Amino acid sequence: MQPTAVHDATQAHADLSPARARIAAQLTVLSAAAFIYVTAEMVPVAALPAIATDLRVSEALVGTLLGTYALVAAVTTVPFVGLTARWPRRRTLLLTLVCLTGSQLISALAPNFAVLAAGRVLCAVTHGLMWSVIAPIGARLVPSTHVGRATTAVYLGTALALVVGSPLTAAMSQLWGWRLAVGVVTVVAASITAAAWLMLPGLSNEHIQTSPPPDRHYRNGRLVTLSMLTLVGVTGHFVSYTFIVVIIQGVVGVHGPKLAWLLAAYGIAGLVSMGLLARPLDRRPWVAVSGCLSALLAAFAVLTVLAVTRQPGMVAILVGSAAIVLWGAAVTALPPMLQSTVMRSAPNDPDGASGLYVAAFQVGIMAGSLGGGLLYARGSVPAILAASALLVTTALAGVLSNRGLFRLSAM
User: Fold this and answer.
1) 247 and 381 in contact (C-beta within 8 Å)?
2) What distance in Å separates the CA atoms of residue 285 and residue 213, rounded to the nearest whole number?
3) Are 335 and 155 in contact (CB under 8 A)?
4) Residue that finishes a domain, picked among 182, 206, 230
5) Residues 220 and 191 placed together within one structural domain of the fold
6) Which residues of the chain have pLDDT under 50?
7) Is the pTM of this model over 0.90?
8) pLDDT at 11
9) 250 and 165, same structural domain?
10) CB atoms closer than 10 angstroms to residue 378
11) Which of 25, 194, 235, 345 lies 20 to 30 A from 297 at CA?
12) Strand residue runs (E) in 23-146
């Protein structure tokens, strides 16, 4: 290579460095938005006893806040995506973050349970809209060959919310009260809103005018199939995840502080797997998705066997703990894989496609929580795990038999 060519290549790399740094910062803002949204969503789980005591209601009633949240999000996602379809993407994201900040302020000051529930509804109505636009925003910041990696970077925020955000709000609730914990979430949400306004580009969505109308998505066989497989898989996960503490205590035999460490390992395994699978997701998405579903099935199968056979203590602890960690690694990596594939299925309107996917995801949360609750009411933990294994098997069979769903195409 001639000296001039070497100089040109070096100069080009130098010119790209600021752009890379800017994109990295923008993806960090998007990841932070995902982090605070999930942290806020899970506050009733993290601070359940404290909220119940302060507002003088039952813990069961506080527990309904999570299911109600998922219901509202499922119902409002597609309509709100349609209403905001032609808005610049930053404006749409800022709307959701403003609603999140307002909802947390209302919740922190709520004098009773009804006002707290109303605050949660304000957040829930834009929850699906946020998830419909946040990954497409990340995808538009990078070349089409890096869509999977960008989506994974955004979803790191959700994993961190489970590993860091939820435990922190639980600790703050116990030490200083749940209102202070929600107040901290409010301040962080406001800060992320300001960062998004300052750092993200407008990202005009005028191209949507030449795209198929929203109802066309229901005739996109690839998108509908992906959404249905997502619904089945998410249902399978939440049938058991709703009772993961019960499973760890009763099947694995881990109690007390060690249970918290195992839950942390579940989350950390998810962070690691997301990082490891980000690059393969852009090159071999079908292999990545089918591999994760296979690992998830293996985890549920092992836990089902342990629940049925009631193995001796040390065997159950060692094998069961490994299955829990595998569960976390597999299931945490799946959402960015599925959403990046969904966006590729409708390159002219990735936001609308994401809306349908998010609605299916929320329905899966509701169906899994309800189905798991019905099985748990009958006192059958093995049936919960077996149901999860059956549903994940169904999703895996659908993925294996529809390799074309995961074909790569330009965004």
Assistant:
1) yes
2) 27
3) yes
4) 206
5) no
6) 1-16, 207-215, 410-411
7) no
8) 44
9) no
10) 8
11) 345
12) none
**In terms of DSSP H, where are the helices of 177-253?**
178-199, 221-241, 244-247
Count of the separate structural domains present in the chain: 2
Residues near 72 by beta carbon (within 8 Å), at least 6 away in sequence: 121, 124, 125, 127
Rounded-to-integer distance, Cα 68 and Cα 393, Å: 28
Q: Are 37 and 164 in contact (CB under 8 A)?
A: no
H-type helices in 284-312, by residue range? 285-309
Same domain for 258 and 310, yes or no, is: yes
Among 340, 399, 384, residue whose Cα is nearest residue 236: 384
Q: Are 293 and 394 in contact (CB under 8 A)?
A: no
**Looking at residue 60, what is its pLDDT?**
63
Total H helices, total E strands in the chain: 17, 0
Query: Do 397 and 389 form a contact (C-beta atoms < 8 A)?
Result: no
Q: Is 19 inside any structural domain?
A: no
Give the CATH number for residue 91: 1.20.1250.20
Model pLDDT, residue 13: 42
Q: What is the pLDDT of residue 313?
A: 80
End-to-end CA distance of the chain, in Å? 34
Residue type, 148: G
In which domain, by residue range, is 304 found? 214-406
| Per-residue pLDDT, 95 | 93
Residue-level pLDDT at 172: 84
Q: What is the pLDDT of residues 78-105, one digit of tens each?
A: 788 878 878 888 888 999 999 999 999 9
Do 228 and 186 lie in one domain? The reply is: no
Joined tokens for residue 380: 């059958």
